[in-house]
Structure formats: C-alpha cells, structure tokens
Amino acid sequence: MKSCFSWVEVFHRPMTESPPATLPQPAARSKRQPTMKQIATLIEDLVQLTELDATKRRLDAKSSEFKKLTLEAEGVRERLPTAILHHYDLRVSKGRRGAAKVRNGTCGGCHLSLPSGQLSDLRRDDMALQVCGNCSIFILPEDPKPQEAPPPAAEESAPKPQPRKRKIKAIA
After folding, report:
1. Residue whose C-alpha is closest to residue 107's, from 93, 89, 84, 91
2. 119: burial class by Cβ within 10 Å (0-12, 13-18, 19+)?
3. How many Å apart are CA 72 and CA 50, to the nearest integer?
4. Which pTM was predicted?
5. Each residue's pLDDT tens digit, 64-101
6. Are 127 and 118 in contact (CB under 8 A)?
7. How far apart are CA 48 and CA 43, in angstroms?
8. Which of 39, 78, 93, 164, by CA, is between 20 and 30 Å from 172?
9. Mind listing the pLDDT tens digit for each residue in 26-51?
10. Which helix (H) or strand (E) holds 101?
11. Count of CB atoms within 10 A of residue 43's CB?
12. Which residues, including other chains, have CB under 8 Å from residue 59's CB and lie 6 or more apart?
C-alpha cells in the first residue's frame, strides 16, 4: 500500500517539484537498440559474406583469388556482431549455408514455405534479421523485382482492325 500512496503524492505535487528519486524515470532510447540503417547494413554485410563464401567454395584453396576473397571476407566479418557470426559459422561448419534469400515465399535453404507473417515482416521497411523456423539459417529479403518498362504506345495513325463479318448460310 505504501507504493499506492507514493503515486498519489506525485499526482498532487505541484509541477515545479521534481519527482522523487525512487520513481522510475521514462526510459530513454537505448543506444544498443539497432536502427533501420544499421539493420540494412547488417543484412548487406551478411549477403556479401554469403556470396564470398559461395565463391570461395568453388575455388582451389591454394589459388591467389582464394586468398583475396579470404581477406575480403575477414573485413566483412569484422563488421558483423559476434552473435550473428557465431550463428552463421555454426551453420557453415555443418555443411549448410549460413544465410539464404527468400524466393517466391520459400526459404532458400530448406525450400519450405514461410509463414505469411514472417514474409510480411521481411517486406517492411523497418525490417529485422529473420531466422527460418525449420532450418534456422538467416533469411534475407528477396531482391526487388526490376520495374518493367511500360509497353510502347500504339501509334494512332495505324488503322484499327475491322470486325469480321458473319457468313450467312444460304438455305438450300
């Protein structure tokens, strides 16, 4: 009951008085909470790391191109948080992909359809990093489809085709 009375005291206090130190202050926005721009760059880095790993798998481990890609991948890995890298590396160590793009509403890793709520979360602008519920790899949003050019306008000077006339059957 003591806390109930302290709230009543707060409401009856004049506006010039500061609130007591025991009452909770409104929470300021945490600096650790990622913003949309940070999430977008995080997803871009994850896409880049996935592409580099796929390219490295096709090359010989002793080639100079492989060493270049390894150095580039290390630079990308430094920008990613350790928790995401741990999850990614765990999947890759098992011979799976660490991340896959969504294609036609299905996961690119296990090829099972994703729930509609998760698909709508991926399409939103304030997206967050999603994980597949079945194969637990990172789901990356699909590439936006290129805008198709509108068909060229038909020339107005071209004659319109005339409707066909019906043939009348002669009664014999």
Report:
1. 91
2. middle
3. 12
4. 0.60
5. 898 999 999 999 999 988 898 999 999 988 888 899 98
6. no
7. 9
8. 164
9. 555 445 555 666 777 888 889 899 99
10. strand 99-101
11. 20
12. 65, 66, 69
